[in-house]
Write a structure and sequence with these properties.
This protein is of the alpha+beta class. The protein has 3 helices and 5 strands; from the N terminus they run ββαβααββ. Helix content is 18%, strand content 21%. It has a 5-stranded mixed β-sheet with strand order 2-1-5-3-4.
Length: 107
């Protein structure tokens, strides 16, 4: 199974295994990774699963879509070019070792 390394808002790191086909948000919530709220359950309507993808991996995940960028503009933590809503990143074996930093504030 591919792994995801989360840097949590408190600075701690946590590496978890993800089911291929699951979103990064779904994986984090299911495994109790702190900091990702996922209030809408992955419906792309709340921006409470904001993460920053490692600069070396942003091309692997792809950049935010126009609609996702609009949602990120409403996020509590200002977005950057590395911002993604973790509900929109689907895990594959090609993303094994994905590193994301969870936004400090989500609500």
């Amino acid at each position: 199974m591919p792994t995801i390394e989360f840097t949590c808002p408190d600075g701690s790191c946590r590496t978890v295994e993800a089911r291929p086909g699951a979103s990064v948000m779904e994986t984090a919530v299911k495994l109790g990774v702190p900091g990702i709220v996922g209030e809408c359950g992955g419906g792309l309507s709340c921006a409470t699963c904001h993460v920053f993808v490692d600069v070396d991996q942003i091309d692997l995940t792809g950049r935010a879509t126009d609609f996702e960028e609009e949602m990120l503009e409403d996020a509590v933590t200002p977005p950057t070019e590395l911002s993604r809503l973790s509900c929109q990143v689907t895990m594959t074996d090609a993303l094994d070792g994905l590193r994301v930093t969870i936004a400090k504030e989500q609500q």
